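Hi support team,

I submitted a single chain yesterday and got back a structure, but I'm not sure I'm reading the token output correctly. Could someone confirm the output below corresponds to the sequence I sent? I've pasted both exactly as they appear in my results page.

Thanks,
R.
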Amino acid sequence: MINTDDSANPSITLASASPRRRELLDQIQVSYTVFPVDIDESHIAGETAEQFVTRLALEKARLGYKKYPNRPALGSDTIVIYEQQILGKPENRQNAFEMLKMLSGKTHRVMSAVAICDAEKERCKVNISEVEFVQLNDRQIEAYWETGEPVDKAGGYGIQGIAAQFIKNIKGSYSSIMGLPLYETTQLLELVGIKTLN
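Hi R., thanks for writing in. Yes, this is the structure output for that exact sequence:
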């Protein structure tokens, strides 16, 4: 249900270029205009993981609403946390290798924040899920990097892609691990008058 023409009367602005978030909004039949935003995603010293991911989601939603103030804007951000260490998108091959080596055979947390801004207020919700990885060897990690999939993924992997075979167990929300917690998203949409089921 992607709309790039403003006259198509989309329900919201999706302040993200992520094809995964578009796919998830399509799943719950929400119409939207895509407005990719470019923000500084650096962690600020002293921020908790929840403060960090919430700030990024809100910043994206604010920019989306600023661009299209005639409708609510949705921003979202996802991070991976292992033993208090925040893992964002890998900077390069070595960084991705180190991340996946760290997650191998362990359980980590995935935190996704979703924010909606409109004329009245800003709202944000956070979902925290757990993911257990199988033990990975160096060859598997190298081969996975070569697929190109880890490049733009928090923690260096995508649950909806090839890396699904590495995941032994999840506890929480699959859509949140994918990048947009749909339960929390529908709650926020209803607060701004958008119902996914009538």
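A quick pointer for reading it: Residues 49-67 form the longest helix (19 residues). Let us know if anything else looks off.

Best,
Support desk
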